[in-house]
Design a protein that fits this description.
Elements: E1 4-7, E2 22-26, H1 28-31, E3 37-40, E4 50-56, E5 66-71, E6 77-79, H2 84-105, H3 111-117
Antiparallel strand pairs: 1-2, 2-3, 3-4, 4-5, 5-6
Amino acid sequence: MSYIAVMDLLDTTNLADEEIMDMVSLVTSETGIHNTIFVSTKGYAQHAPRIKIAIDPPNSFSATSKTASMAIHDYSTLGEPIPTHIAKQARQFIERNRDVLLEYWSNKIGTGELIRRIRPV
């Protein structure tokens, strides 16, 4: 299984160490979504649990690429417009994996456990 566990390094020069969070990048074969998905732990985030979706380019592993966010609890979105078919896949992915996504968000499981337990759509 191919995944990259990365630190969210958008611009860490202005962030305290405790503001950095763990993030994993997941590819189509792992999620069933035709775009790269970023899943993170809560860290010191001020937002609800969510996944990030690479929009441009759609297969990017860079958290600095154009992305959209989809909330796990209500599928609300922020950021770049999400193509309809990708939004549908993302909602299905969240429905199928909500429990494990929330456990990862809450730091109850590690990245390896997340990877083992997620189920693609």
